[in-house]
Amino acid sequence: MLKIKNIEVVYNEVVLVIKGLSLEVHKGEIVSLLGANGAGKSTTLKSISGLLKTEDGEITKGNIFFEGNDIIKSNPSDIVKNGIFQVMEGRRCIADMTIEENLRLGAHTRPDRKMIGKNIEEVMDFFPRLRERKGLSGYLSGGEQQMLAIGRALMAKPKIILMDEPSMGLSPMLVKEVFDIIKKLNKDLGITILLVEQNAKLALSLSSRSYIMENGKIVMEGKSSDLIENEDVKEFYLGGGKDNRKSFKNLKSYKRRKRWL
Amino acid sequence: MALNFLIQLLVNGLIIGLLYGVVAMSFVLIYKSSQVVNFAQGEFLLVGAWACWWLLAKFAIPFYLAFLLTLIFMIIFGILVQIIILKPLIGEPIISIIMVTIGLSIFFQAIMNWMFGVFTEPFPTIFNTESIKIFGLNVQTAYLMSGLISIFIMISFALFFKKSRLGLAMRATAFDQQAAQSLGVSIKQVFAAAWAISAMVSAVAGVVFGIVNGISSGIAFMGIKVFPAVILGGLDSVLGAILGGLAIGLLEHIAHYVDVQFLNVGNLIRIAPFYALIIILMIKPYGFFGTKDIERV
């Protein structure tokens, strides 16, 4: 469904952030993209959604195919129309609009304007919490804003949602709730999801396949159930690992960990 | 007699204030969506007024038709200005874009002078009765019409931003450009719409001033006059622009009253708004309705 082929991304015409990244998302999957801060996860999402251009970034090499069409040159609004919707990091609700206005805004690219009222009701059923809250969305709590951001994505009826750190700044209880929602989106509504997360454990348990990024490259990929058992992943991302591997010198994966030392 | 004069001035001030509010609103519209301070706002009034005058004088069509055509022309005009001149500048420093609008203002003034001459042209007679008596007060028919149109424009603005798809998109763009884009809003479309609506609404004010005072490049001075109004209301508040416009309209007419009755310096009506501008900037630089960020506690 979504296929990234060997892309390279440059910011401000000098900073090379993504260095030949390829990944693939099949229909109906939840795929997670993990990695340290600054590895290029958000940049990857922005290259898919076309938002890169707003930050002076540019894809200098490679292709991104969505349902067979190369979307590298499309502008963000056409990409949303095609069915790719990015829920940005930090939620980015329009604070001086009400919840309903935010939801209607999410349906901006929909041609069937008559259905919107009904869809708002559906989203409210999905997130009963939002129905109770009146007033401006800027006054919602972090978790509610995240739900609003996801609800806003649903309004666009996307085929795939790119989710950038949905757990950011939420309490463990809320993180679990948000992850349950993501699972439900995938299962009940059949929406494909590409998930970028810091919470590796939860992301691995939720997704069917995962990619691990470092320094603008994919360093590991596979079934999430396999990765969760992988010794390196355990040590670097999940905490723990075996005691006898404490010396970094002995690690065969030393090279790709270098920037943490 | 003096009291009658005062009331008369207050009524005029209120109506002119509404018009200021309309122009200020169209100014805020551009500022809010694209952060551009448009120094060519007054020229929009001028172009609109001349366009309407030309249609009336040249083709002798009924006023309402000429007025409608003017509005359509101004929409196209606004979009063209945006596409030809401002779109290539997206991403450039804001100060250069503002300089360009100053250039635009001079350019349009010169073109209008060249096309229509430098002398004041009276509008062809539009209303059979020049003024109507309401409660013993003389109100110019054109002003009465403009008052109604202004209120109509303000209500439609409010509805537009609350209900319509484009209105919501414009608000979202004003608040967070990147987030708006992530929702599929086309920034170019929003900017073009902002300029088109702004030009169209300004033209309404331009035509009204033209009817009352005749058309000359003096109308463009209105573009400068909106500054006290928008500064008073806060640069990025539509509601503030309306109230600011009303306040400035009333203020200058009260100043005029004081001038005529007591001071006899003359011309205070033109100067008073700018005294107000300086005082507001000193005590409340963000105006009364300027951006207040929502912070969660």
Polypeptide structure, described:
The complex is a heterodimer of chains A (261) and B (297). Chain A has helices spanning 41-49, 76-82, 99-106, 116-126, 128-132, 142-155, 172-188, 200-206, 224-229, 231-238, 254-257; strands at residues 2-11, 15-25, 30-35, 57-66, 69-70, 84-87, 160-164, 192-197, 209-214, 217-223. In chain A, the strands form 2 sheets. In chain A, strands 6-7-8-3-9-10 form a 6-stranded mixed sheet, with helices on both faces. Chain A is 37% helix and 26% strand. In chain A, helix 3 packs parallel to helix 6 and helix 4 packs antiparallel against helix 6. The mean pLDDT of chain A is 86. Chain A is built from 11 helices and 10 strands. Chain A is of the alpha/beta class and 261 residues long. The two termini of chain A are 38 Å apart. Chain B has 297 residues and is mainly alpha-helical. Chain B has a single domain (2-283), classed as Orthogonal Bundle (ABC transporter involved in vitamin B12 uptake, BtuC), CATH 1.10.3470. Chain B is 74% helix and 3% strand. Chain B has a two-stranded antiparallel sheet. In chain B, a hairpin with a 2-residue loop joins strand 1 (131-134) and strand 2. In chain B, helix 1 runs antiparallel to helix 8. The mean pLDDT of chain B is 83. The chains are: A alpha/beta (261), B mainly alpha (297). Chain A binds chain B through residues 49, 51, 54-55, 75-77, 79-81, 85-86, 88, 92-97, 101, 104-106, 108-109, 113, 136, 138-141, 152, 156, and chain B through 162, 165, 168-169, 171-172, 175-186, 294, 296.
